[in-house]
Amino acid sequence: MTVKQPSQSSCLDDWLCYLEAIHPATIDMGLERITQVAEQVGLLESFSKIILIGGTNGKGTTARCLEALLLNQGFSVGTYSSPHLIRYTECVRVNGVELDEQYHIDAFKQIDDTRGDTSLTQFEFGTLGALSIFKRCNVDYILLEVGLGGRNDATNIVMPVASVITTIDLDHKAFLGDTRESVGYHKAGIFRANTPAIVGDFNIPDSVTDYGTEIAAKMVLANKDFHFTQLESQFRWQYFDNDWYFDNPNIPAQNVATALTVLATLDLLPSFESVQCCLSEIQVEGRFQQLSTFPLVYVDVAHNPESARYLATKLQHLRQKGFKIHALAAMLADKDKASVLKTLTPYVDRWSLASLHGPRGERAENLKPLLDTDKQITIYDDVEGALNAQIHGLKQDQALVIFGSFLTVAQAMTYWQNNLK
């Protein structure tokens, strides 16, 4: 069945539906197809300096930090991240701002008209679309967030001025394997010979450093070349002559330390005062984002063991302030649900579990047996139903934390905007 291409005056949703219809597979690993189309469209030419950002967690916050610090110095910056929460246009920012839908439509049409018979996934279209937009806007720097793994990810077609691995943990096991060594091997695939490769993980698998050594990447490693120390209300970053203390930001300080190292390596590090000012203003949507003061509500996209450990530290701080934690969890079936819930259970006083609908969604009934707790557990058919039942009953000493996936947070944020904001 032939699917008709929307017109250039069609809406962005029509184009996204079209892109999904012509290549229904969400993931189709390999770089041959996308490289061919990128060359045809002229997107592999050196029109901007690219920083390629991979890792299990922390890619989005590292990119946001780099974006803020580069903009602070007067550079123009294009940022590509995924997945989006509410609107597809969130995936592409130029100088920190989302663009009109027409930019995406124009880019998709250009790529679709050029690709011929070459099939592309929606993510591959999105990656090429972002590069097309950045070329059109003639930005100085491109921050390109890796989608899955690295070695065979669509973003890995570019030649970066630096490659970054934030953290390494288990996720997407069907594609990346079930050991940190295997995951590290895939992520190290974004390294390039004689090019800076910054790794922010504290326990770097040998597969990462072995590959970096093999191709003669210029590796800059956490706990060896640069150091990060988390203190009570501050964090310390040390790299060569820099020994700086900053107030704790709204994003993981470990990712800030990695971003600072990237800039220092590229001789782009701003002043201490500029960094401190930028850090005080950074907030990344969906990353322990506070939606309300009363009732006290947070959302977090935590969906794998490492991100759950970070969320656990936030819950612990809330408990130390005297709050009782009410958790609302909804997750995808292909995630390590047991480990995530086990990590957070000691800090939660009351549980609500909601189902996520769709082909990858997990039923709330299947999450309940994974909770080893004697605390109250209530099951709901969806996130909206859980919020309808729970949001107005929260007391002054209670905090509601909604987590489990990007879909969960998106549904909670949409509910908030439509009903409570």
UniProtKB/TrEMBL annotation:
Keywords: ATP-binding, Folate biosynthesis, Ligase, Magnesium, Metal-binding, Nucleotide-binding. GO terms for biological process: folic acid biosynthetic process; tetrahydrofolate biosynthetic process. Pfam families: Mur_ligase_C (PF02875), Mur_ligase_M (PF08245). Its EC number is 6.3.2.12, 6.3.2.17. Residues 53-197 form the Mur ligase central domain. Residues 286-406 form the Mur ligase C-terminal domain. GO terms for cellular component: cytoplasm. It is an enzyme of class 6 (ligase). InterPro entries: Folylpolyglutamate_synth (IPR001645), Folylpolyglutamate_synth_CS (IPR018109), Mur-like_cat_sf (IPR036565), Mur_ligase_C (IPR004101), Mur_ligase_C_dom_sf (IPR036615), Mur_ligase_cen (IPR013221). GO terms for molecular function: ATP binding; dihydrofolate synthase activity; metal ion binding; tetrahydrofolylpolyglutamate synthase activity. Pathway: Cofactor biosynthesis; tetrahydrofolylpolyglutamate biosynthesis; Cofactor biosynthesis; tetrahydrofolate biosynthesis; 7,8-dihydrofolate from 2-amino-4-hydroxy-6-hydroxymethyl-7,8-dihydropteridine diphosphate and 4-aminobenzoate: step 2/2. It catalyses: (6S)-5,6,7,8-tetrahydrofolyl-(gamma-L-Glu)(n) + L-glutamate + ATP = (6S)-5,6,7,8-tetrahydrofolyl-(gamma-L-Glu)(n+1) + ADP + phosphate + H(+); (6R)-5,10-methylenetetrahydrofolyl-(gamma-L-Glu)(n) + L-glutamate + ATP = (6R)-5,10-methylenetetrahydrofolyl-(gamma-L-Glu)(n+1) + ADP + phosphate + H(+); 7,8-dihydropteroate + L-glutamate + ATP = 7,8-dihydrofolate + ADP + phosphate + H(+); 10-formyltetrahydrofolyl-(gamma-L-Glu)(n) + L-glutamate + ATP = 10-formyltetrahydrofolyl-(gamma-L-Glu)(n+1) + ADP + phosphate + H(+). Belongs to the folylpolyglutamate synthase family. Functions in two distinct reactions of the de novo folate biosynthetic pathway. Catalyzes the addition of a glutamate residue to dihydropteroate (7,8-dihydropteroate or H2Pte) to form dihydrofolate (7,8-dihydrofolate monoglutamate or H2Pte-Glu). Also catalyzes successive additions of L-glutamate to tetrahydrofolate or 10-formyltetrahydrofolate or 5,10-methylenetetrahydrofolate, leading to folylpolyglutamate derivatives. This is Dihydrofolate synthase/folylpolyglutamate synthase. It comes from Pseudoalteromonas peptidolytica F12-50-A1.
